[in-house]
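User: I'll paste a sequence; please echo it back and then give the predicted structure.

Assistant: Echoing your sequence first, then the prediction.
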Amino acid sequence: MQFRIERSAFVEAVAWAARSLPARSPVPVLGGLMLDAGEGRLHISGFDYEASANIEVPAETTAAGQVLVLGRRLLDICKVLPDAMVTCALEGPRFTIEGGGTRFGLSTLPTDEYPPLPELPAFCGSVDAAEFAAAVAQVAITAGRDDSLPVLTGIQVRLDGELMTLAASDRYRYAVRAVPWKPDGTGPEVVEVVVPGRRLTELSRSLAKSGLIRIGLNGSGGSGGGLIAFEGAGMRTTLRLLDGRLPRYDKLFALESPAVAVTQREELADAVRRVAVVAEPNSPIRLDFSARGTVFLQAGYEDDIASQQLPATLVGADDMTAAFNPAYLLEALNSFNASKVRFELLGPGQRALLSGAVDVDDTTREDHRHLLMSVRQLS
């Protein structure tokens, strides 16, 4: 086995495939990357049973073959290679990487012990990669971090006609974002699965510049398993689905006769960041909306307090008070792109629905909505 490849292409391909590698594994070969050189191309793949990654890049192959080497060690070497053409070869039991006068030798892993990559599910449609990555980022902030509740660490993907809806919740907040979806007519009309949130976030970022990405599904999670596959720009990856479903958000997001407040989003985010400086850990920040055209922010207790007043519009009540975890509120505000943010409020201790807004009278349903629980105890 021997091939030559541009350093930048080699580094990017190894880095992308290494995303699938586990941080720790009791099975040494699962920490490896498989390099398969053929005529005019190089395949690099990784697999840990929960995720697989396979990327193809151009390469000048003088001797076809394959080799399995420790992935993270190979990535470390790639990062420090000089900016020059890289020549790689299998010399007996050692894999050599040479470029710009620098030479490395890596021990190899037994290829016969490496598990075969899972078969790709049939592709059922495509989505714009940049829009998909942005949508995943908007909802991923509300995915749970508690591995004892695996389904809450995931992002729910619902395919319904020509719409893809992404959703995530950690029980204290719930984010939903819809994007256009282009079905190819081969799969079921409505599909709903839960995908590991952290892996989907990393994957969507890596594919963000791929134009259109194709998506395939096999199964629907549960004890029987199931896979979701992504393909774009020569990159293919699979993720194992999570068991279970998230709570339905349609009823949670349906607020009866809420007061509606609208204010400038970035100005409010800046104010939250300022006044939260004096807040103790887990202490809320209080927002007092008034029909007189203001919102008054306050945080802290006793001697250490901070406050700021901003312009705001309120309809449906003379005044309305709500209090939120400042970190949750700030993450919610920063997840929107609109210049204004719209609050639908029921009162202290109740649900509050945030969306991007043009004006207080704008009732258009936003593609991105974010539900927060208001803190009940105010002081």
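The longest strand covers residues 51-58. The CA atoms of residues 289 and 320 lie 5 Å apart.
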